[in-house]
Amino acid sequence: MSEHNDSASLLESNSSKRNLKGYQLKIFISIATFMSLFHIYVLGFQPVTPWLLYTVHLGLGAVLVFLMYPFRKSTSESVTIVDLLLILGIVFVGTYLIVEMDELVYRIGVAPTALDLVVSLILIIVVLEITRRTTGIILPVLAILFMLYAYFGASFPGVLEHRGYDWSRILSYLNSMDAIFSVPIGASASFVFLFILFGSFLNETGGSKFFINFAIGATGSRRGGPAKAAVLSSALFGSVSGNSVANVVTTGVFTIPLMKKIGYPSRYAGAIESVASTGGQIMPPILGSAAFIMAQLVGVPYLNVVVASIIPALLYFVTALVIIDLQAAKLGLKGMDKKTLPNLKEVLKKEGHLFIPLLVLIFVMTVLKASPIKAAIWAIVSTIVVSIWNKQTRLGIRKLINSLANGAESALGMIAACATAGLIIGVLNLTGAGLKFATLVISFSGGHLSIALVLTMIATIILGMGLPTTAAYLITAAVVAPALIQMGVSPIAAHMFVFYFACLSAFTPPVALAAYAAAGIANAKPMQVAMTAVKVGIVAFIIPFAFVYGPAILFEGSYLEILLATITALIGAFALATAVEGWFIGARANIIIRIILSIASLLLLVPNWLSDIVGIAMILIAIAFQVVRNRKSTIIEESRRESI
Fold first, then answer.
1. Rg (CA), the chain
2. What's the CA gap between 406 and 402, in Å, rounded?
3. What pTM value is reported for the model?
4. Which residues pair with 358 in a beta bridge?
5. DSSP codes, 401-467
6. Digit-coded pLDDT (tens) for 574-607
7. At what angle do helices 469-479 and 412-431 cross, to 10 degrees?
8. CA end-to-end span of the chain, whole Å?
9. SS3 (DSSP) at 598
10. Is residue 41 within 8 Å of 197, Cβ to Cβ?
11. Are 9 and 401 in contact (CB under 8 A)?
C-alpha cells in the first residue's frame, strides 16, 4: 500500500481484493469507519428498529464489497462503472426500504407493488453478487437452485413436491425478515459484527503478537515446544478471530518455521498449525461467529452455548497437545534454547495487560450476566483503555480509525454469506421444505440415529469445503438439524454437531482451506498437510458423536455425571492419541496394542458406565502388554551390549 501505511492490515495481500489507493482508499476507510461507529452507537447507546439496523448493515457492507472486491480478479485495481452502478442500486434499495418501512411490513409476500418487486430483484442480485465476490460461486449457485425449487415445486417428485409459487410471491417474500433479513443477518448485524470489531481492536494493539510471544515463552523450551506454542497461540487468537485461514496466516508465519527448525517435518508443522487454527473457532468464550447464530436458532442464551462448548474444546486441544508431544518423543525432538525464547516475565510485564479485555468479556457475560452485545462493547472499551498502559500498544487516533475500518472490512464475507444463507432459509420457510428434507434424512437413515449422524457429517463437511463455516452451518442446520431433533437429539447437541463438522471442513481433504494455507507457509504438499491434519485432529471427528450419545459432555446432567464424563473422555482422548502416534509408555506400540487403545478410546469418549469400565480394562491390558514388551526390549538390548 503506497498510501496510508497503517492501513496495511486492512487491505492484506489478497489476490481477490483490490489494492485501493488515493481517494478511493480514503472513501473506503471513511465508509468502513462510519459503519463500525454506527453499529457501536445503535447497539450500545441508541437502539433502532431491527429493520433499519439490518438494512444499513447489509447496505454498507455491500457498498464496501463493491469498492474492495473486483468483478473478476483480472480486472482493474480501480472501481469500475459496473461497481458504481451496483453501489447506486444498493443505495436506492436501502433508501427505499427505510422510507417505506412502515408500509412494506403489510405488503411483503402478500400484495407487493411493482416497485417493491423491482427493489427485491435488485437486492437479491446484489446479495448474490457480493457473496460471489467474497466467498466464491458455490453459495450463490446453491441459493439460485433453491429459488428455482420454490418456482418449480410442482414438478418435483415425492416428498419434495409443493404447489409452486410465482416469481412475484418469491421475490417479495425473500425481501423479508423470514428470508434475507432473518436470523443470520440479524446475528451478523449485532453480536457477530461487534465481536469481529473487538478482535480488530485487540489485533491493532498488537494482541496477536502478544499471544504468540506468550505461547512461545510459556511452552517453547518444552519437548516439541513450538508446536505446543502453535496450539496455545491459535487457541487464544482463534477464539477472537473466528476464522481458521486468517488464524493460520497470522500465527503460522511465526510458529511453522519454528516447528521446522527443531525437526518437525514440513507436512507435520503445517498440519499442527491448521488443526490448532481450526480449533480456535470452537474455543470458548467466543467460538467464532456461528455460535451467536446458534444461540438464536436454538433459542437459548449465548452463555449456554459457551458452557456446552467447554468440555469438547478441552478434549480437542488436549488430544492435539498429547499427539504433538508423542510425535516429538518419537522423533527425539527437544524444545528451543531458552536463550532464544521471549522472556515470559518481560512479555507479561510489557503486554500482559492485553489479557484484560478477554477477562472483562468473560466477567461481563458470566458474572454480570449481561448480553453478548454489552459484553462486546465493554471488551472494546476496555481494549482502548488498557492499551494506554504501554506506548507500543497504545491506540492513537490513526490506530483507532484502523481498528474501526479493519473490523468492518473483516466482516464483509460474513455479511454476504449470512444474507445469501437467508435466501435459502427463506425458500425453506416459504415452501415448508425444511421439514421435508428432515423427513428425507430420516427415511435415508432408516430411522437409525447413527446413520443419520454420518449422513449429516458428510453433508456438512462437503458444504464446508466450498462455503464459509457460518454459511455451511446455517444451511445444514436448517435442513438436517430438525431431523436429528426429531430423532431425539437435544437441540443444542444437534446444532453443535453440525457446527463442529462445519469447522472441521477447514482441514478435511480434498479442499481443506486452512491446510492449504498452512502448506504454503510450510512449503509442503497441501494434500499431505491435509491428511496429516486429519490424523492430528482425529479426535475432533469423534467428539460430536460422543456428545450426541453422551449429553453430559455438553454440561447436560448432574455434576457427578459431567465430572465422570469429563474424566473418562480425557482418558479416552489420551488413549486415542497414543494409538494414532503409536507411542506408548516411552516406546513404540505394535499394531495389537494400538487397536486395543483405539477401541478403548471410543468406549471412553462416549459417557456410559459399562463402556467406561470396559474401556479402562482395555487400557490396563494395553499397559500390561506394553510393559512386558518394554522389559523384553530392555533385556534384549542389555544382552546385545554384553555380547559386544
1. 26
2. 6
3. 0.83
4. none
5. HHHHHHHHHHTHHHHHHHHHHHHHHHHHHHHTHHHHHHHHHHHHHTT-HHHHHHHHHHHHHHHHHHS
6. 999 999 989 998 888 999 999 999 999 999 988 7
7. 10
8. 68
9. helix
10. no
11. no
